[in-house]
Amino acid sequence: MTAMSSTLTETNISRVPADESIFKSFWMGGFECSTHRLPRRKSLGRFAGLRLDLTASTRHDEFALQDYARLQEVGIRTARDGVRWHLIENASYRYDFSSLVPMLRAARRTETQVIWDLLHYGWPDGLNIWGAAFVDRFARFARAVAGVILEETGGPIYVTPVNEISFVSWGGGDAGFLNPFAKRRGPELKSQLVRAAIAAIEAVREVDPGARICHAEPIIHIAVDPDYPEEAGAAEAYRQAQFEAWDMIAGRRCPELGGRPEYLDVVGVNYYSNNQWIHQDPHMPPSRRRKDVLLPPSHPLHRPIREMLHEVYDRYRRPIFIAETGIEGDARPTWLRYIGQEARAASASGVPLEGLCLYPIIDYPGWGDDRHCYSGLWGYADDEGDREIYEPLARELAHQQQLWEVQRRDHLAVEEAVNIDKIDEAARQSDVAATRSRTKRRE
Question: Among 416, 425, 393, 413, which Cα is nearest to 298's?
Answer without folding.
Answer: 425
